[in-house]
Amino acid sequence: MRPSSHALFGNRTGMLLVGLVMLTGCGPIGSPPFEPSGSPQQASDSNPIKSLAEASPADPPSIDSSNRRSDSPVAISMQFEPDQPRAGEPFVVSLNLQIAAPFEIQAVGEPPPKIATQLEMLLPDGFTAPAAWETPLASRSFAADGHSVYQGTVTFRRTVHPHESVAPGSYMIRCRVRFQACDERRCLRPEEPLLERAVQIQPAA
After folding, report:
1. How many Å apart are CA 120 and CA 1, to the nearest integer?
2. ω before 102 within 30° of 0 (cis)?
3. Domains parsed from the chain with CATH numbers
4. Residues 172/194, Cβ–Cβ less than 8 Å
């Protein structure tokens, strides 16, 4: 028995519909494929935190020698005033500390267990420094106890007296600084850099 024309038409129509669904999927014809709202490059941080070396300030040009670690947040320089003093006339030695944020160092005289900043001066024969170091004004720490610290740029000064019998020439002044730098999360290991710089003594007046 031959199938009727109505049956053949129904079968062909059904096959056509199935093929159309297979080609287009479940969505409407012409709908774009799904894409995430953002790419990994857009989601990444465009302003990453700088490394400590990048954030640290540049070493002052006046420094002659320093044992500063490459990863230290504290740069120290030594200066004389006047730069070329005469024998028998006092001059001031200044230690300039540049402490990179967000670090701070403990102030001179802070009690244990904190590691207080300490300064030591090593002088050649014929030079004396009878007075103590002049210390900068301390700030309050961001720690809960608010102890005394140094932040930013601070300067320590001490007056040195070359005896009038000192012969004209170059003499090495050495200073050792002991400190520990801390931020809100941690404290770095203590440092004891030794700075040295030659002072040129002129003849007595």
Report:
1. 118
2. yes
3. 55-201 (2.60.40.10)
4. no
Coil, strand or helix at 80? strand
Residue 44: the pLDDT is 29
Listed in order, strand segments (DSSP E) in the chain are 74-81, 91-99, 104-106, 118-122, 127-128, 139-140, 148-150, 152-162, 169-178, 181-182, 194-201
pLDDT, tens only, 105-131: 999 999 998 899 999 999 999 999 999
53-81: string of b/e by CB count within 10 Å (b at 16+)? eeebeeeeeebeebebeeebbbbbbbbbe
Distance CA 166, CA 169 (A): 9
Q: Do 114 and 147 meet the contact criterion of CB atoms below 8 Å apart?
A: yes
Report pTM: 0.67
Quick check: 179 and 190 in contact, CB under 8 A? yes
Yes or no: say if 53 and 70 are a contact pair by the CB < 8 Å rule.
yes
Cα 109 from Cα 117, distance rounded (Å): 7
